[in-house]
Amino acid sequence: MANKNLLKKIAPVILSATVAMTGMPSAVFAAEFSDEEVVLDGSAEDEEADVEIADAEADVAEDEADTDIAIADADENADDAETAEEELSDAEEVFGTEGETEAFAEEGNAVESGFVYGTANIPYADFFYGEMNDVQQNAEIQLDAADPVAAAGYREDGMYDAVTSCTNVKSKRYETSYYTENTENGSVTLEGIKNVNIAVPTSLYNEAQKAIKEGKNCSNQLLSIIGSLQKVSETAPESGEYKVLNGDGTLTAMKTKTKELKFNSSISTSSAWGDYEVIVEFGDENPDQPTTANMMGAIFETSDGEKYAMEHSQNLWLKTGKIAFAVKDGFVEPHGNTIDAKRSQGLEGKTIKKITYLVKDGADIVIPTNLLCKYKLADGQGITGPEEKVVYTNNTFTPTKVQLTYNVPEGSSYKLTSVEYGGQVLSEGSYNDYTYDDSTKVLSVYGGAFAKTGVGTYTLTFTDSSAAPYEDITVPIVLSADDTKVTFAIQNNKLVKVDPNGSTTYEVKDYIKNITAIKVDGQALGGRKANISEIAKSVFNESTGAVNFDAKVNNTAVFAKGDGGSYEIELTSSGFNTVTGTVAQDSGEYKYVYAGLTWEQYWEAEGVYEATNTSSSDKKDRRNESDLGGFDAVTRATANHGLHRGSFQTMATVYDANGKTYALAGWKDKTTMILTDGSTVSCSKGKINGIDVTEYKVTGLKYIPVKVKTADYDAFKKAFKVVENGEKLFGGYAENNLSAYEETAEVNANTNGLKTATKDGDTFTFSARANGTTSGLKGEALKTADGITTKMKPGSGSYGEFLRVDLTGNYGGLGGAMQAVKWTYYGDDDTYSNALQSYGTKFAADNWMHKFHGIQLALTDSVRCKLPADTDGTGYWEVTVYGLGYSDYTFRFQATDENIAKPAGDADSTPLKNIIAEAKALKEADYTPDSWDTLVNELEECEDMLANIANQTQYGIEEQIGHLREAIDSLVKAEFKLNQTSATLYSGAAVTLSATTNLTGDITWKSSDAKVATVDAKGNVKAVNAGTATITATLGKVSATFTVTVKNPSITAKADSSVIYTKSKTTTKINVVKDGVTGNATFRSSNKKVATVSANGIVKAKKAGKVNITVQVGNHKQVVKITVKKPTMKLVKSSAKLKKGKKVTIKVKAAPVSKVTFKSSNKKVATVSSKGVVKAKKKGTATITVKCNGITKKFKVTVK
Fold first, then answer.
1. Which among 64, 81, 218, 697 is most buried, taking Cβ atoms within 10 Å?
2. Of 480, 392, 383, residue with least CA distance to 434
């Protein structure tokens, strides 16, 4: 344009319009403008980005005024009017008419001052959609517009959805992402990018806020993002970085700077972390390298212009120079995370030309690359070595031959490019290390003094040289030693060579060098990145093979059990035999065993009250039982009180009415007792082998870990029942929360609870138990009791106790392992600093565990437990439970007067009588034996209390009533149901019945009529003869029935018609119904001259007569009679006289009924229809010819 003044005056209009059209804040444009004059010519529209204006805000106000004046001047100045009009016309081509220009100016002002900024957490899908697509700015609110991000598939599983990771600690270290945490398993879900800078046009922001307040629905993410904006301000982010929010809920690409840097990069198809792994070599401490604090993502751009975004954790590592991705579903990396392949599967076969790291509040890093994503092989494709063992010959002239097998894609061209062994790349050539024949696919490995080859694993790499190459293939092959000549073993705490020929080809150091895995007690040493070879050298002496019991891995002792500890070793060594064996830390000075100790022997050194007092007491407790003495044997008058529980950890002896004794060790099942000598006896309902049980005694604990000098061990074995390391420990009976156990002894110097046995003349004394870190059980770590609830009980004194605490919750494990319990009384000392007295206890007399109600711990008013003077038991107590294989379990509590047992005699017997009557009214046959036995036991307890009601307390009565009530409520209805209740069978057929039941035992079967149906011991029912029988199945006291109806098999044959004719209806079909018969029917005619019959039962007439058709299926026959007749036809009348115009119908009788035809000899006299209706036409005579079934008749018509 010529008039620069006018152009200068409309420059603000240009700026305002530009801002309005682009949606960009005017501050961004202002920063790019200068004081240079604006020149607008024909190419102005194309060069719009190059226009520069300085101090935009000041110029807008000034130039708006100038524009008004300029337009006014133009209107008044006739000389300049035409020029001004032309200049405005040029501007109108870009911005429209004058009115439109003003509108743009107003809109421009609004946008320029109308952007708000904030931050929001943006899901990956929304964040990357703007980065990977040309999203244009659009400030028009579109609540009903469909979500473009969802439409593009970005929200689909495996695309740009949230990342769920089990590596929760690492996932939290990406500072640019926000996450949620699963409280159940600790896994972390990365949702997207946090605190993303967002710019929103004020008009859009205000409209969206209004929509939110009005509760309007939105089909896209607009209102969600607006509603989540934080730190809303009119000030742009200091970094100048932001995304613009559009009216359809999309976000533009980040407005930011970029920095192109050149670094070496590479790609691998053999990675544990993905189908592909990209490495960018940033170098050490490169300030340009993105970090976990600022890396928002990365985008690959391929040579075809496609883009692929990478997400945190799944693709982007904490080491930001490494990026892994998958292109096939189901890839699981070492941490157990599945790598989504959907978003990156298009990369296969493409070349990555550029990687862009998206950097928060900084320039994005752009790295040019040339990385080919070679095609992945399909499952099952590849190159494999031989399945059979290949023995290494170590010969210079006779190489070891290895046959490889190819299963590679058609068109590929794989070549062997390298062979590695022992960390070295081998040299190709017959005078070097190996040769390879491409035609035969045979690798030849040469040995000898100068070769770098040997026994072990070789890694072969094959590369595809085709135009569209597939991934490299690495093939591990193992060349093995000849184990007929040399093997290795663990002997006397050493790894040794077993070489019958005395060869020196291989030594222990060769085996150690090739070790690939070491397991100690089933646990592998080292982690995924561990150098197993170095670990092996620390565990074994390379020269002697001796085990180094001081070895450590990651500063943790490999052999931590101490003296007496034994360990199962398993070694895997490439090319050599797998070695398993036992090594033991044994100084030889001591033997470590389990021993059975009496109560006195156990407690004598534990610092408890009257520890060596073994006196008994004639005084009875409130259950009329004698357990109020010192540390003597525990006696029980009832046969069912503890026979199962006493077998867990105690030495118990059972007595029958004949005086015979049984040393109880455990239970094979509920009614089979295992004795200490390994034999078994039947024990049920208070009887052993049918003889009444009178009592049992608990003399002490059967499995106490003991250390005894080797020199004294023979004498010790004679004095005590011992279990040596490697032998079995077992006991208990599984009931509800309690479980039987069977373990292997492994006592060592660090076993928890270890006592030292010291020989004193002809006897042994025992030290106090020592705290340790091992369980004493092979393959078991020392357990810790957790999830246990301590429950103080009101004092009842039901069994003579004056104080009781129950342990409930997750008590089962500790209950089955419980050996002894120590109580320490501190009186009023709430600091637990000054103990007044400690007390030992005995199982069954003081301590107990219930299958439902927890561990029941008590102190009994007895010789072994007397309170200090001037105390009453209230105050502070500490209780420690000692258990086999458990850490000591200690808890503290304060006892109040409510917890101390009160004198007996206040009990009301009525509730007890009522529940006893209720229990007795129940029928044993209605319930399962196990649940019924529990009821019986609790009922007997109630009856014992009722018989001794004067010695009971009300609380004790209520507690026992609660036990019986629970037993009643826990009764399980006996279920016994057959798989079917009735059926119809044909004689000779069979059916197998089975029962669904919650009962145990053998089912008996019986038939009500064996002539109709029989049944065997397995429920197989066989039909015999026609009739009805009932099959009864019985199990214990319940039964179920099955009704069987037996039919004799037969066939029924019937013809569609028993009469056919030689003409017209010449055939009929015989239908056969089979009842309990299988097979195809056959048909036979008795006279084929009369009628024949086809294989399908179609009978065809030949001549008049009668014939029998015999139908047979298997052994079953039936005769069908068929009559063949000649067809007939006659007229009811043979003539008629009619007047002109009248009608008559010719009536025909035919057998079989068939088509009848009619024809008039003179249609001028009379006509006849196809239905035989004759119509008189004019005077005269006509003859109607009637034909049917091949017979012709005449009907004469006379018209008057």
1. 218
2. 392
Provide the β-strand partners of residue 180.
189
In what helix (H) or strand (E) does residue 206 lie, and over which residues does it extend?
A: helix 202-213
pTM listed for this prediction? 0.53
Print the SS3 string covering 1015-1031. Answer: ECCCCEEEECCCEEEEE
Buried (b) or exposed (e) across 772-800, using 16+ Cβ within 10 A? bebbbbbeeebbebeebeeebbbbbbbbb
- Return left, alpha or beta for 803; rule: phi > 0 is left, psi -120 to 50 is alpha, else beta: beta
Can you list the alpha helix ranges (DSSP code H) found in 39-192?
A: 56-76, 78-95, 98-112, 124-132, 148-151, 168-171
CA distances from 1129 to 1066, 1068, 1155 (A): 16, 21, 11
Distance of CA 1148 to the CA centre of its chain: 84
Q: Which two tokens stand for residue 316?
A: 């982007």
Q: How far apart are CA 467 and CA 461, in angstroms?
A: 19
For residue 1033, the SS3 value is strand
Q: Which of 95, 88, 99, 86 is nearest to 14 (CA)?
A: 95
What pLDDT, on a 0 to 100 scale, did the predictor assign at position 954? 78
CA dist., res. 156 & res. 488, Å (int): 56
The pair of structure tokens assigned to 46 is: 């194309």
Q: Which two tokens stand for residue 419?
A: 């062979």
Joined together, the tokens standing for residue 683 give 């024990």
Model pLDDT for residues 326-352, shown as the tens digit of each residue: 999 989 988 888 899 999 999 999 999
Task: Locate 141 and state its tokens.
Answer: 């609110």
222 and 249 Cβ atoms separated by less than 8 Å: yes
Range of weakest confidence among 476-485, 629-638, 647-656: 629-638
Neighbours of 1071 (CB within 10 A): 13
> If we measure between CA atoms, which residue out of 567, 564, 484, 490 comes closest to residue 522?
567
The backbone torsions φ and ψ at residue 672, rounded to the nearest 5 degrees and listed phi first, read -120, 110
Rounded-to-integer distance, Cα 546 and Cα 548, Å? 6
User: Kind and range of the H or E element at 365?
Assistant: strand 364-372
Do 348 and 373 meet the contact criterion of CB atoms below 8 Å apart?
Answer: yes
The total of other beta-carbon atoms located within 10 Å of residue 85's CB is 11
In whole angstroms, give the CA distance from residue 468 to residue 350.
10
Contact 1021, 1044 (CB under 8 A): yes
Residue 12 pLDDT: 46
The four Cα atoms 222, 223, 227, 230 give a dihedral, to 10 degrees, of 10
Pull the structure tokens for residue 139: 């400030």
Residues pairing with 401 in the sheet: 444
